[in-house]
Specification:
Layout lengths: L13 H25 L5 H22 L1
Length: 66
């Protein structure tokens, strides 16, 4: 029984396949970079506030454990 792949035709150009795969890879990477750069960032003030909240929480837990 012969194997028949419907996605390829006889005499498929492998250079074209490589180019299309490369193009897909470039589009994928560009989409990921765009998603990273458009994500809202965390300001330094928010990071410091989160650190202070975490420290206050640790102190409260330590106080309860005594």
């Amino acid at each position: 029984m012969a194997y028949f792949d419907t996605r390829k035709t006889a005499g498929t150009n492998t250079a074209f396949d490589a180019k299309s795969i490369f193009d897909r890879l470039v589009k994928f990477i560009a989409a990921r970079v765009t998603a990273i750069t458009t994500r809202p960032g965390t300001s330094p003030e928010q990071i410091v506030a989160a650190q202070h909240r975490a420290e206050a929480h640790r102190r409260a837990v330590d106080k309860l454990m005594r």
